Amino acid sequence: MLKKMLGLVVSMMVVGLMAGSSFAAPPIKIGALFSVSGPASFLGEPERNTAEMMVDEINKAGGIKGRKLELIVYDTQADATKAVQAANKLIKDDKVVAIIGPSTTGDTMAIIPVVEKAEIPLVSCAAGIKITDPVKKWVFKTAQNDALAVARIFDYLKKQKIAKIAILTVSDGFGSSGREQLVAQAGKFGIQIISDETYGPKDTDMTAQLTKIRSGGAQAVVCWGTNPGPAVVARNVQQLGIKLPLYMSHGVSSLKFIDLAGPAAEGIILPSGRVVVANHLPKNDPQKKALLNYVDNYKKHYKVEGDHFGGHAYDAIMLIKGAIERGGDSPAAIRDQLEKTSKFAGIGGTFSYSSQDHAGLTSDAFVLVQIKNKGWTLLK
Fold it and tell me: Homologous superfamily of 147-272 in CATH?
């Protein structure tokens, strides 16, 4: 009897020690680079908030295989130099096993050589097609490609029998990539670009460009940029009394744009992830459950609804979580498992990566939305 009791005590001690050892295991460090302040803060703030919210929820649920995640966030301020410095710090000093972000195409392109050399997986939250085309071994992305956004707009224009357009693009990484796609795809849809204007990221008035566009014979205007520039364009269009339909890129798919543009936002059409119209989706939509959960959770934490951009960080965290669960937490294992990810229904779309595709989405990732009554409606 005494031997049985001693054996039981020893067994309990071993279990206790194992549990304590598991609890005391070092956290899995994930780096994050977001434009939390500066001109792209409307991207970086919801991304930072979402990443922190998701890591907190994962840890409260027991972490990943008993280990907690530690999220280390640096603010790039949409400055490529600062992004490179922060990426090096995450890799060399913080010893992260993966990085999510940056928020912008320019910042992402700047740090790609850093992560490729260090062999650390990167899941960018930016949209430029050049991030993953051609494929880089260690680089993935969650934001929908600008190529897909252009195709969705052009398909709609074709159905509306609009064949002549003017484009107005911002002269930064996102705008340049978007312009390339607008020019490259126009012919395929029978569309002619008859006015091709640009503006600077810090410009506060685009009446000169729009005055040229007004007299050019276009049937519609497509603006490509991120806040605040597109809101200025929308207001200038209204001030000049231009009656042409105005289309925007997915770079303004947040309520921030509607706030900045004010009444001038009414009627504008743009491609967006489904998150902004989650309540309007059919019940059988594979993303609907995740979308509604995300929107509700974000609102509970931050008193506003989760948006298109925060969704990029949600997807990045969950994709890395799945990769670690399947293959372990070494950078090489995470990279390999990311590449094997199939049919992950996230916020930005349903992701299926492969060795030939590190963007993982199709044109189905976008819906067209229209701004009505200071909110979003699903355009069918």
Answer: Response regulator (3.40.50.2300)
